[in-house]
Records
---
Amino acid sequence: MDLLLIRHARPLRVDGCDGPADPCLAPEGHEQTRALAAWLAQEPIDVVYSSPLARARQTAAPVAERSDVEVFVDDGLAEFDRRATFYVPVEDLRADGDSRWRDVLAGHWNAFGEADPEAFQRRVVTTVERVIDAHPGATVAVVAHGGVINAYVAHVLGTASMLFFEPSYTSVTRVVAARTGERTIRSLNETAHLQRSAVDA
């Protein structure tokens, strides 16, 4: 089967709130999502899965609508920051030299509400493999998060670091999953739709 791992579009920034931050998409994010849905419209997507977080669900909805399929929300696809009281885009954390970015790279995720990165990766891999097993021979789009995509791809590649690349907003990473258990990364971080969208603008 063909698996499309899609990072959500750009969300709003939330610097702090009383409960878990679960921001909706920013205006730029809605534009990215429209470009993604138009780009994928010619692909035979059979099923769409989404993380339960708002930024993923809002990205998944237009893709599913274009393909005339239902969105299945799966809690196992949630990001490691789902319990954090803030949402700051990783590129902002990195650009600002924020200590929270250094903590993420070092595997210290307590500020994000996730105490055990290895448990997070096991949960992600278990969830994605369950999705694969449920749809043999299909093309499945999974809309999730940068950490989720990294965790699964790192598992397939056997990399020492779980967070080894930065998926762009609405980027597509393609995995071929054979019935015999082999997993092959066909592409990483496709963003052609964003380039075409910028030209059209």
---
Amino acid sequence: MLSQERHNFIRAELALKGRVVSLDIAQRFGVSEDTARRDLRELAKGGDCRRVYGGAVAPRAGSVGERNNHLRDEKLRLAQCAAQLIRSGQTLFIDSGSTNIAIAHAIAGDLELTVATNSLGVAVALADHARVKLVMLGGAYNRELGICSGEDTLSSIGKIYADVLFLGSCGVDSVHGATAFDSAEAEVKRAMAKNCAQIVVAATSEKLATAASFHVVGPKLIHHLVVNRPVKASVLSPFKKHGMTIHLA
């Protein structure tokens, strides 16, 4: 009965906040962190959450369209703030993720840019931008993720050097940096990160201080972190120690 009470609490927190922390569950119910982690493993097996470093996050929405609508207002604010970092004449990598699609939509119409992307959503967002030279990074298309990946995608990335990478992240942590849930997606992100001068991560609050299964880049390689207000100073201070510039949307 007590485990069911904890499970119900976890589901409610995931629905409200998008994430839960193992330590918070343990302290709230007076149980060990091992018990809290066991609860999360059980819920993850049933598809109620996805395990991350230190806790769990809400499961991925079913379709690309549903993911775009998840935390829509928060992502729009992030996108408007992140787009202010773009300068005319730059070459950009914009990889996968619903926040990155929002950033593509937010790019000012008077900017002349070259944008390389493996994301169909980003490409559609920029298809009618008269001053953007759009480069599609081809490869095998993954309908669930809305991206191209694989050897052809990696080969295309290797021929481009970008001024800025807008890096989509399933989790961003001051210890583990940016991470992803899918190995092929993470491989593409790492290739882009290797071929760029600066990395920008725009992250919704549910992704802060979490880490997914596959490493992308360490925290010292992230130059700009864009997050929504309000966020506790205690959450941001570990990121600042790595030299990141924090932008509050």
---
Amino acid sequence: MIAIIDYDAGNLRSVEKALVSLGEQPVITRDRKAILEADKVILPGVGAFGDAMGRLHQYGLVEAIRETAAQGTPFLGICLGLQLIFESSEESPGVEGLGLLPGKVLRIPDCPGLKIPHMGWNSLDIRPGASLFQGIENGAYVYFVHSYYLKAGEESVVAASTEYSTHIHASVEKGNVFACQFHPEKSGAVGLQILKNFISL
């Protein structure tokens, strides 16, 4: 069973729909027991870092997520879900993230001719052998919507990167923890392949 964590951060239904199209029957839940017993867990989300961490604490989900990661369950953060698994974000100074991986989330620097938030399709520079990107060609395009970007603390966890005003760590994987800044559920056939790769881990 795939658990999609519900903490009022939007974007759950489109992730659910994409998984259903791949033949899965995901459960949207904030029940600690269901999350800890799931075969795979997904943390999607859009919105502000501080608000999201507040809701994760409010619903008692912070420890459930940390336990899920610690017990080796494959875990996927999407968009805001990627940002939350790191230590902090410039969007919400003083708010601690989940800290599953070292790194900080920074505001995309202003750049003449580029709009922020970054909304649209960008190509990925994919690390050879990255699990989420099996069967996907380097340079494949995926869909982004974000104003803040990840600077991972360890270059070795970066599975894919992109350029938009700066060098953006677009996807990470370490052990059983995976995350994408872009939206695989909105990225057509490439995105579905990424989700399929996660399902088959």
---
Amino acid sequence: MNHDPTYQTERLILRPTTLEDAALFLKLLNTPKWLQFIGDRNIKNLQDAEAYIHENILPVFKKNGFGNFTVIRKSDDVKIGCCGLYDRLGVEGIDIGFAFLPEYERQGYALESSAKIKAIAISDFGLTQISAITNPENLGSQKLLEKLELNFSEMITLPKSEERLMLYKWRDN
């Protein structure tokens, strides 16, 4: 198995997140939607972003062979967001997730990258079930998950949290 996979879509490059993506993560983790729907990760400077990647992203790829991908627009090599597969405590199965800088929302990039991540989850990693969680107020995320053929399953609460989240699931029939 390729432990440093890079994938492409028509408009995007998806490559494993590295420490070189710290500036993107500093910006992304402080966007209004990230703070509202995902939560404050207390990333206040470039060093915090590098530590976040080093502690939370790189070990997951090493352990699972998959994880968070930085999404880069082919037309200008701009890093626009992230998308990936996560083994999240409290979520049954592997979870698909995505986040984009506000200026790149509503252009189909989240759907394009997430559809590619779902496809490689099935083809490269043999997953027969994919889950996703979202805040009940995040209608855009809910619509995107439905386009990916994930269906609402139930409301859940993650460990060490009181927030109620919507759990979506896809199963290979």
